[in-house]
Amino acid sequence: MKRILILATTPFMHDGLTKIIMDVYDYSKERVSFEFASSFYEENEYWSRLKLDQTPVHVLPRKRKVLEYMKGIYKIVRKGGYNGVYIHGNSAMMFLEAFPARLAGVKSIITHCHNTKSDFPLVHYILKPFFNKIVTDKIACSELAGAWAYFSGYKVVLNGIDIAKYRFDRKVREEYRRKLGWEKNFIIGHVGRFNKQKNHTFLIDIFWEIYRMDQTARLLLIGEGELRGAVERKVKDLGLSDAVRFLGVTDSVDKYMQAMDVFLLPSLFEGLVIVGIEAQASGLPLVISDNSSKEIQITKEAYRMPLKSPALSWAQKVISLKNCPREDTSEALAESGFDKLKTLETICKILCNTA
């Protein structure tokens, strides 16, 4: 059985990247012996699951102390005797994990890029040539993410989902619309962490225009994050408090998607956003920014809007989809390669084929 160290470069939370890491772990742990290392360790449900499985977890120095962080990775890899390290991240800054692992003697460096932008773009472009030289297996969630992180030789592995879980169900739709108290309303939905990337400020601008044209419109926001307070204040200042619901984190995203009428994602950038795939699996019309990868357009009711377009144009597009009929899109999702089992099996084979 191959021994793989997963290097988590971001905190474990309710987001797409964490979900993929844990899905790979759950799917592959009978064939791969995993250990984890992170500088973001804290007591939560994800780390508790690993502890319950008796999966070793190594706590690294804080990443801002770069040399100490890299030295910590070197020591763990040098001592661990792993067949490979598996690094998840958003840019060539995964070099900070890959380089000490290479110095420590590991032969297989597997990196998985999930996005198309970095908070430190200059550092990304400086490190990109060196990063690409030492990585042995290059995975990207989309063509855009691949071109962003790598020069060549990368493999696009689409973010698959549990298609059956999201299949449209009219009874669930009616139940959750009643639960919201919005049985006769036009419900626009969004799922995402409240951070800069998800562009909630512009999302509220769009909804304001929608609400001006249609007083039955309601906005359902699912997620948490550092900018939630600022978004709540903006909603209050615009007098939209009665039309916007902040749901927080929920295990019933699939069911709330049934209640929605249109899914809205005006993100500043995306690799291949999982919730956009899930929304289409539930038969929802999708309106997403053109900064997202083209692979996101699976169903005939998925639309990419220019991020530079005014909020009014976005609002008009959303309203045009108000009475769009819901259909079973599971076949289209499967044919496009978004089946979760296919994704996980592809990654598991890469891990099992390490040196």
In short:
This protein is α/β, with parallel strands linked by helices and 355 residues long. It is built from 15 helices and 13 strands.
How would you describe this structure to a colleague?
- This protein is of the alpha/beta class.
- The chain is 42% helix and 18% strand.
- The chain is built from 15 helices and 13 strands.
- The strands form two sheets. It has a seven-stranded parallel beta sheet, sandwiched between helices. A six-stranded parallel beta sheet has the order 10-9-8-11-12-13, with helices on both faces.
- Strand 4, helix 4 and strand 5 form a beta-alpha-beta unit.
- Helix 3 crosses helix 4, helix 4 runs parallel beside helix 5 and helix 8 crosses helix 11.
- The mean pLDDT is 94.
Can you lay out the helices and strands and say which pair or pack?
Blueprint: E1 2-8, H1 16-28, E2 32-38, H2 45-52, E3 57-59, H3 66-80, E4 84-89, H4 95-103, E5 108-113, H5 121-134, E6 137-140, H6 143-149, E7 154-156, H7 163-166, H8 170-180, E8 186-191, H9 200-213, E9 217-222, H10 228-237, E10 244-248, H11 253-259, E11 262-265, H12 274-281, E12 286-289, E13 302-305, H13 311-320, H14 330-335, H15 340-352
Parallel strand pairs: 1-2, 1-4, 2-3, 4-5, 5-6, 6-7, 8-9, 8-11, 9-10, 11-12, 12-13
Helix pairs in contact: 1-15, 3-4, 4-5, 8-11, 9-13
